[in-house]
Structure formats: structure tokens, C-alpha cells
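> example.struct
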């Protein structure tokens, strides 16, 4: 029987309890992952405190975690393109990452050069960045202004937008060491130049992506 970090009630970190839970069994389109690393994000903390109980009621068992990385150890009958033993990273919209085993319906193979820690911390941010870029329908040659781009979603959105051929411009309050070189070349610190001045004359009808996922035209 696997173990997981279960939320016993809403509250501070000490409401989390490491305990045995039933072995999850994958449905037809799911895989079961033997977890190596799971990400901890701000939404997890808000759910644990009860701030989002109207939107994210505690599941049963109450195992949080929107993202994880590990090794596939069981697959559903309709799953293809992955096999037991494959290393994957997964986004878990139904939660479940804080355990030894997790079920996933959305996953990708972990490249060999990507560390387990990075693989476990990327899925939720990547899903958010890709989702907003798809909503905006960013096209080759368009200008994309990303506000508040110092975090993981903003960094990923910038790199993906540039890869799609957009002219990405990012705005944040202070520089970050170790940022991706392609993303760093498009940074406009707020204290040096207002972002709308930087992009004036180059904006398309869809130029603004706020990293909290809000679309503005």
C-alpha cells in the first residue's frame, strides 16, 4: 500500500499527514506514475489553507499536487505511446502529486538531460503558458507584451512565443540572474522604461499577456 501526504483538514502546514492510502488504479486513458518528484505551487498552499474551498474542494483522499515526475508503472487499456518504465512529467488537474503513486491523463516524456527536480516543477507552469498562448492565437510576426514575466509562466511563455515567431517583450520589476538568454534579451525593466512605450508602434491587436492568465485586447 503506497503512502501520501494527506490534508486532514484546512489549515497550516501541520495539517498534512504522511499516511497509507489505497493504491490508485489507472482508468482506460490514464497512466500510474511512481513518483520521484512533485512540485509545490502557490495554488496548493491556498487549497490547503481553505482559501479556494469553493473552487477546489478537498478530494478523497485529500492528496494535493498539480504536477509530478516519475516512472510509469501501469497504463490504461486505451493508452498508447508510452510504456511501463518510461520516465515522464505530468500535469494533474485533479491533484494527487503529493504521494508515492499518482494517476495522470496528461503527461510528456522526460528528456534525459532534464533533472527530476526540473521535470517535477514544470508541468503546471507550462500548461498555463501554453493555454494562454493558444487563447491569444499568437502568430508569426506579432508582438506579444508579457507583464509580470519574472516567474515561471512568464519565462516559459516568452520562450514559446519567440519560438512561434512572435516578437516577445517582457516587463518585470527587477532582473533575475540565470534567466534564459533568449528570454533575457527581450526584458524591459519597469524602472527603466514603461512597457507600452517600449512596444509603441509595434503592437498588434493582441499584444498583452498577463501571467495570471488574463487576456486583454
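> example.seq
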Amino acid at each position: 500500500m503506497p503512502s501520501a501526504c494527506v490534508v486532514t483538514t484546512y489549515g497550516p502546514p501541520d495539517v498534512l499527514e504522511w499516511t497509507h492510502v489505497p493504491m490508485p488504479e489507472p482508468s482506460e486513458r490514464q497512466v500510474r506514475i511512481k513518483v520521484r518528484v512533485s512540485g509545490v505551487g502557490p495554488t496548493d498552499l491556498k487549497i490547503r489553507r481553505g482559501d479556494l474551498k469553493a473552487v477546489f474542494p478537498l478530494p478523497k483522499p485529500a492528496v494535493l499536487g498539480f504536477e509530478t515526475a516519475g516512472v510509469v508503472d501501469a497504463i490504461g487499456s486505451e493508452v498508447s505511446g508510452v510504456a511501463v518504465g518510461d520516465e515522464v512529467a505530468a500535469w494533474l488537474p485533479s491533484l494527487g502529486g503529493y504521494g508515492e503513486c499518482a494517476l495522470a491523463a496528461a503527461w510528456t516524456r522526460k528528456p534525459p538531460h532534464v533533472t527530476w527536480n526540473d521535470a517535477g516543477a514544470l508541468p503546471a507552469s507550462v500548461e498555463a503558458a501554453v493555454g494562454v498562448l493558444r487563447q491569444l492565437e499568437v502568430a508569426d510576426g506579432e508582438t506579444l507584451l508579457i507583464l509580470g514575466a519574472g516567474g515561471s509562466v512568464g519565462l516559459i511563455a516568452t520562450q514559446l512565443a519567440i519560438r512561434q515567431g512572435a516578437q516577445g517583450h517582457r516587463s518585470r520589476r527587477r532582473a533575475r540572474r540565470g534567466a534564459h538568454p533568449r528570454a533575457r534579451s527581450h526584458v524591459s525593466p519597469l524602472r527603466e522604461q514603461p512597457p507600452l512605450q517600449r512596444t509603441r508602434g509595434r503592437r498588434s491587436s493582441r499584444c498583452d499577456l498577463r501571467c495570471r492568465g488574463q487576456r486583454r485586447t
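> remarks
Residues 85 and 197 are 51 Å apart (CA to CA).
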